[in-house]
Design goal:
The chain is α+β, with helices and mostly antiparallel strands. It contains 16 helices and 13 strands. Helix 4 (84-99) packs across helix 5 and helix 11 (265-285) runs antiparallel to helix 12. The structure holds magnesium ion.
């Protein structure tokens, strides 16, 4: 633990509100304080929580847990419908409170921000005091139930990693001297940015722990993930400040030219369901939500003479989601059953945004009711979701195991279509 004062880093602070939506409700509704609380976008047994209070987390309930399952785990759980406007207003109150003691460098989402201390507070001890002041300011100015964890690191990325080390109300440091030993305990998927897909790549090269990841040289990392991504990841975990690349992908799609036995209305529907399931799985693996579903079906042309187009494309926008069970009823609502001999089905999840930006988009939306109305209309059309899943299962073997594979993903157009 050699520390050289001349080489002391300037510290970055990453502030992460603890169980933010649940904490807001506990702040403004006294009867919820100290109780297990789950926040849902709309009251419906099929919905998953978008936040859970720490009291609920003690029962194994977390973001994504379905209401029915949560009731099994904790019969006393209080289910609360989200109030995005309240969270948004509280967010601005939090920023004002923080700015009284430290400059907010970047707001990452409704409950996360990066703080850059002033130069005269660049020593760790001073930065830590600053972190404490930030926590106090939020508690006094906004509310005692609004707690946050603050991470300290030589880069915004490592500060974020640090903020995850201790919750709630943590003040955790990842210093250059701590690298990499202090992070050996992290599972690969504990790292912000490592999803299931990236984890699988590590596994394929025999890397299963953070310690093994740190043993990789930059050339090795470049080999595993391709030049730019691998090099960037190497620099990030070693504490360098690396600018995040803009999100380049805007859709995840699958297309399939139907095998002859699937060139029926039911066959096309079944394939569409399975394509959607696969696309949604990839969306989740890659750490994205989507805000739009596009589906198209092409049939054999009815008339070469008239050139009549025997195909259709439909798309719809909705609140960010990455859940198959939310997307399947949406697909059903778009579906047109009027092509007798379909030959190609295409599905695309569009307007995709990184998971970390999802709460931001919630808070950006001035209409409080957007999520509710979207989910409502989906639920009205939903019926029994299991019927839809069964439809997808019909084509599962065909799409997943038959020799006719998935078509390639949609080629990425140069711009966003409207
Ligand atoms: Mg948080």
């Amino acid at each position: 633990m050699m520390s050289n004062a001349n080489m002391s880093p300037s510290w970055w602070l990453h502030l992460d509100m603890n169980a933010y939506f649940a904490a807001c409700e506990q702040q403004y509704r006294e009867e919820l304080r100290g109780r297990p609380v789950g926040i849902v976008p709309v009251i419906s047994e099929n919905t998953g929580f978008i936040a859970a209070s720490y009291e609920a987390k003690c029962f194994g309930i977390k973001t994504g847990t379905r209401i029915a399952e949560a009731r099994r785990l904790c019969p006393d759980i209080r289910i609360v419908e989200a109030r995005p406007r309240l969270y948004r207003e509280t967010h601005f109150a939090i920023i004002s409170a923080v700015e009284k003691v430290a400059p907010v460098h970047e707001v990452l989402s409704v409950d996360e921000m990066v703080i850059r201390p002033w130069k005269n507070e660049s020593q760790l001890s001073e930065a830590l005091r600053l972190g404490q002041k930030v926590q106090d300011a939020i508690r006094y100015d906004v509310g005692e139930w609004l707690s946050c964890s603050v991470g300290f690191g030589p880069s915004p990325f490592l500060a974020k990693v640090a903020s995850d080390l201790q919750k709630p109300r943590g003040l955790s440091v990842v210093s250059p001297e701590d690298l990499p030993n202090k992070l050996y305990g992290l599972k690969l998927t504990d790292w912000p940015g490592i999803g299931k897909r990236m984890e699988a790549r590590f596994h394929a090269t025999g890397v299963f722990t953070s310690e093994e990841m740190y043993q990789l040289t930059m050339p090795a990392m470049r080999r595993i993930f391709g030049g730019i991504v691998g090099e960037r990841w190497y620099r990030l975990i070693h504490g360098e400040r690396v600018a995040m690349p803009p999100v380049k992908r805007w859709q995840i799609g699958h297309s399939n030219v139907l095998a002859p036995e699937f060139r029926t209305r039911n066959g096309a529907w079944s394939v569409a369901c399975r394509l959607l399931e696969k696309a949604a799985e990839r969306l989740r693996d890659d750490g994205y939500h989507c805000c739009r579903l596009s589906v198209s079906v092409e049939g054999l042309s009815r008339s070469r003479e008239t050139g009549e187009e025997n195909s259709w494309t439909k798309r719809v926008k909705f609140a960010p989601t990455n859940r198959t069970l939310t997307l399947l009823p949406t697909l059903r609502s778009l579906w047109q059953d009027d092509i007798a001999k379909p030959i190609q089905v295409s599905i695309a999840l569009q307007d995709i945004i990184p998971d970390r930006d999802v709460t931001l988009s919630l808070f950006d939306d001035p209409s409080e009711d957007r999520i509710e109305t979207t989910v409502d209309s989906i639920n009205r059309k939903m019926g029994r979701g299991t019927v839809t899943i069964a439809a997808a299962l019909c084509s599962k073997d065909y799409l997943d195991h038959a020799r006719i594979p998935f078509g390639p993903p949609h080629p990425l157009p140069s711009g966003r279509p409207e």
